[in-house]
Amino acid sequence: MTHSTTVRGEHPLSIALFLATFGVPVLPLRAGKVPFGNCRACASNACGGRPNMKTPGPCTCPLPCHGWAAATTNPDVINSPEWARAWREAAAVAYHPGGAGVTVVDLDNEAAVAWACETLPATRTVRTTRGEHWLYRGAMTSANNVRPGVDIKSTMSYARWLGPGTGDMTALPDTVRALVVKQPAAVRPVAVTVPAPAGGGTCPHRTPTFLARGIAMAEQRIAEAAAAVHATVFATFLAVLATHGRCGCLTEEHTARLFAAAQAKGESARHCADAWANALHQLGL
Fold first, then answer.
1. Which of 97, 109, 104 lies closest to 151 in space, CA to CA?
2. What is the Rg, in whole angstroms, of the alpha carbon atoms belonging to the chain?
3. Please, are residues 258 and 206 in contact by the beta-carbon 8 Å criterion?
4. To pair with 81 at 20 to 30 A between CA atoms, which of 44, 204, 220, 278?
């Protein structure tokens, strides 16, 4: 996205083909700045991929009916007969910022713009109907409402194309990355008592490092969950208890760390406690 030529006012298909030549994945938007809905074959995730237009899956549908995941730089796809109707009805062009290696800080009002001017490093800016898009070089996780009037659009998201903007694009700062980092909610430690091995056997952990590494790996697995967080949390709790739950080495501190990792991904304290209890029950502890 280093080009400076403006294509504002041209037909959406012409804009899309122009952007694709610069490696910017594009898709058509309907009136109201929304993507085209799923076709009948893909409705309700019947195609097996991209549920709620958020997670790419195995679907090979040639239509632009999967939101941001349909964005492409392939001119043959953009110009294909399957996309022709969408371009005839398109009101605008969107692009997948993360696919172009870009992060858009969407400032929805003048107050948000004023905050950005005081807080964020200068970069390329694009005027919107109500505020501005600030474009940074580098991709990150997308999130809405990270603060009043501010959305982050990058991976697994789309942004409306409103022109190339003005100014030089600078590197994505840690200040922006920090906006989507959820602070873990206060976690009430849950006391967990597990029986010692039958016959009073010795602890199977050769060194304290073995347990410490296991807890750290579990935290990382939960933190990296991109989807199915509930299932990932339960599976992780189950794996930890299966490996470390029968010798009495797990402490309230270990449990609190695992619960904090899960809550940082949006799980409630209730869900954490239920998942832990279910894991204990499945293992017969």
1. 104
2. 24
3. no
4. 44
Angle at 128 between CA 226 and CA 110, to 5 degrees: 95
Give 106's strand partners: 133, 151
As a whole number of angstroms, the distance between CA 5 and CA 238 comes to 55
Q: What is the 3-state secondary structure (H, E, C) of the chain?
A: CCCCCCCCCCCHHHHHHHHHCCCCCEEEEECCCEECCCCHHHHHHCCCCCHHHCCCCCCCCCCCCCHHHHCECCHHHHCCHHHHHHHHHCCEEEECCHHHCEEEEEECCHHHHHHHHHHCCCCEEEECCCCEEEEEECCCECEEEEECCEEEEEEECCEECCCCCECCCEECCHHHHHHHCCCCCCCCCCCCCCCCCCCCCCCCCCCHHHHHHHHHHHHHHHHCCCCCHHHHHHHHHHHHHHHHCCCCCCCHHHHHHHHHHHHHCCCCHHHHHHHHHHHHHHHCC
Taking the C-alpha atoms of residue 30 and residue 243, their distance in angstroms, rounded to an integer, is 52
- Which residue matches tokens 């029986």? 195
Q: What is the pTM of this model?
A: 0.63
